[in-house]
Structure formats: structure tokens, C-alpha cells
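WARN retry 2 of 3 for item q-0093 after timeout on previous attempt; input resubmitted unchanged.
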Amino acid sequence: MKRQSVLVSVSILFGVTGLCRADLYQWSVASGGSGHFYEPVLVPAGIDWEGANDAAIDRGGYLATVTSAAENTFVYGLVDDSVFWRPTGPDNGEGPFLGGYKEPATSDPAANWHWVTGEPWDYTNWVEIEPSGPELQNRLHFFGYYRRMGSLWNDVWNVNYLENGYVVEFNQDPSIVPLPGAALLGVLGLGYGGWRLRRYDLL
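OK item q-0093 returned
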């Protein structure tokens, strides 16, 4: 008889690896929320709306879409900290970007506003004199009206207008990202904890 050698895999690792996020908050269903997760992102050097929108997508989410008074209160509570705000004028403050935008441009400041997700634009929380800008003021952020911070909204330019941060929304918990077993094994190295191969001789 011929002796044949076969390789038998005695363990295969199909792994799940975690990508930790330091400032991730859930608006729980138990508290009346959507169950979504939110991440306030601080950018001390400043970022414009287009940059914030791209960064939110890169993080696996989207700029927060605020569709109710309760959600507005929750999201504002995540950035109710002076580090997220820039003073403007003697009394007002400019805060993080949200996922609202105005397209196509129109002379009516209140027309054609949308959420980046396509959700209905039913709820608004504008400062009493806003939106008031020209056609190019077509992106949304928090605004402190006669105060340095506040949960009201204002319209700003989409590019080259910098704020200190933005809020990302996720439909599901992004803190644990599953990876295929083969991809994880490639990182660990074949034969180190992922695969154990033994040679058996069969008669």
C-alpha cells in the first residue's frame, strides 16, 4: 500500500474584531429614542460641511439627521461643551454641523431643504430669523442665538466655512466590525492561532 499524507485542519478561526470609538452614545428605544448611535467629533483646527459629510461617511455613518424635538435635545446634549463651539459676533455662538442641506439653490431661504438620508424634512428648529442667507448658505449647523451655545439651527455656506466639529449618526452599533475569518487570519499569520495544521499518515 502507498502511504498518503493529508493535511487536516483542526481549528479554523472565524474572527470578529472590535474597532473602539471613545465617544459613542445610543439614543435607546427604552428612553423613547430610535435605537441609533451617535458620535460627536471634535475638529479643533476646523472643518467645513463638505469635509464633515465625507468624514462621516468614512466613519461608516452619516451626518446626524434630526427629525424630532426629542432627537434634537439628545443630539445637542452631546455637543453642549464649549470645545465644540466658536464665538461669532459679541453674543452668538456657532456649533457643529448636522446632515441638512439645501438643493437646488433658490431665492427662498426656507425652500428645498433635505436630510442626507432622504428622510422627510418635517421637523425644524431654526433660529427665529433663520434661514435667512443667500442661495449659497445651504448647509445646517447648531447655533447659539444671543448665547455662546444653543440647540437652535442656522444655515451656513457649504465650503470654506469652518466649525469645530460635527455629529455622526449610525443606524447600528459601529463599535464592533466583523471581519471574515480569512481576512483576520491574514493579519495574524497562517499557523499563529488561526489555523493549526497537523500531518497524519494514512495506510
